[in-house]
Amino acid sequence: MAKKKTSLFECQHCGEQSTKWMGKCPSCGGWDSFVELNTEQQEVLKQTSKIINTTSKAKPITQIEQDDIIRFSSNNHEFDLVLGGGIVPGSLTLIGGSPGVGKSTLLLKVAGDISQSGKKVLYVSGEESMGQIKLRANRLDANSDNLYLLSEIKLEEIQEELLRENYEAVVIDSIQTIYSSSLTSAPGSVSQVREITF
Ligand SMILES: [Zn+2]
To answer: CB neighbours of 121 closer than 8 A, spacing ≥ 6?
Structure first.
């Protein structure tokens, strides 16, 4: 018997989901903001919820083994403090803030600091050319042979670069400018940001 295909729609403003299309989002009030997710996108959602649901039984805290987290220093004392003592390998940190507040400047400085400690760092910009970033790096004293720049907005190209070199830290500036060609929704939309981050 053929399995019936279930449709899933998602508001591109707030991420509200529904099994049927709606003209007005009941959550954020946005008009015409629902798009249908394709089967691939629905699969990513299922996988995400599987990871979240792996531990289903509660345990007394005294019986839980502590994970030994070995952090490495970003070579920037204040940034280490904010992260709780350094960068956890394999972790993802989202830096948010109003436009113009200095996110790109801070991240380029941190990328420079990490690379100057001998680690290979990739700085991906979806907003600026390599020449513009180089100018800012000069001003911030962030230059290093270990700091690599890539001006790119396609996720697949970034993934290829990550496989090519053995980077120890990657900065993506910014996540909402990156898009995957396997998704139909617009860059910066809820579906794109969620899947690219995943
Ligand atoms: Zn909404």
So the answer is: 111, 114, 115, 146, 147, 148, 167, 168, 169, 170, 171
Q: Over its length of 198 residues, how does the chain's per-residue pLDDT go in tens digits?
A: 555 667 888 888 888 888 899 999 999 998 988 888 877 777 777 776 666 666 678 889 998 888 777 899 999 999 999 999 999 999 999 999 998 999 999 999 999 999 999 999 999 999 899 999 999 999 999 999 999 999 999 999 999 999 999 999 999 998 989 988 888 777 778 888 888 888
How close is the Cα of 104 to the center of ligand 1, in Å? Answer: 29
Cα 93 to ligand 1 centroid, rounded to whole Å? 25
- Going along the chain from its start, the domains and CATH numbers come out as 8-51 (no CATH), 72-197 (3.40.50.300)
Separation of 63 CA from ligand 1 center, angstroms? Answer: 42
DSSP label of 65? P
